[in-house]
Amino acid sequence: MGRTIAIANQKGGVGKTTTAINLAASLAAAECRVLLIDSDPQANATGGLGFRKDPGRRTLYHALAGEAALAELVLQTEVEGLALVPSDKNLVGASIELVDAENRERLLDGLLEPLRPEYRYILIDCPPALDLLTLNALVAADSLLVPIQCEYFALEGVSELLDTMERVRAAFNPALELEGVVLTMFDERTNLARQVAEDLREFFGPKAFRTVIPRNVRLAEAPGFGKPALLYDVRSRGTESYISLAKEIMAHDQRGITGHTAQA
Predict the structure, then answer these.
(1) Model confidence band, residue 261 (pLDDT cutoffs 50, 70, 90)
(2) Which CATH architecture has domain 3-263?
(3) What tens digit of pLDDT does each residue of 168-194 get?
(4) Can you point out the beta strands (E) in the chain?
(5) 67 alpha-carbon distance from chain centroid
(6) Are 121 and 32 in contact (CB under 8 A)?
(7) Could you tell me the residue ranges of all domains in the chain?
């Protein structure tokens, strides 16, 4: 049975959406069926996979509002095996509009239930905030993946996110685990980046992925062309690093991680 991974960090600019897009594409390239859910009102994952703004397009907002089934919103991307549930700016109002909804924390979990058997991985790109959208993602997920930039203050806010994860475990989703932290925007030429990476590995231990995502021009350029790096420049260091990260996650699965539905 497939697994659902929430990708979150309430600190902006840490490579969260870049990780969501390129990890999803790399898993799909490994012949896994993947669904990426864009749960960020900024809709950067939607644009980064080639879907420009379209006021007529139905998005995750319409599913959360009860106006559409999630399956009706799924778009096929250029990457074989990778599908997308798009986002738009209307998601900004979801936290307010849904505040009185019954089981508001479990809306996304319920919407995903019919789709779980169809995909090996479901990735959720969360907004850079600990709001109702992120809470829904954590309740629906089997695990949490945290991108952390290799800079001073890298741990700023992460402890709060991990505290939120523990509260979600206690109240809604006892099976939720930390998939791991991935170090992003790493510049091996600087002593600062190497020191921060060393500190983060010491802090997180085995929960820090071996793969490190480098600062890479191709990774930064690819979203402007509506493509994951895998399609934009397959030989770039950025592409290679996300392929490596995908392999680590798949190896993690083979060591006995089970999916959300199997745990239920």
Answers:
(1) very low
(2) 3-Layer(aba) Sandwich (3.40)
(3) 999 999 999 999 999 999 888 888 888
(4) 3-7, 34-38, 75-76, 82-85, 121-125, 143-149, 177-186, 208-214
(5) 24
(6) yes
(7) 3-263
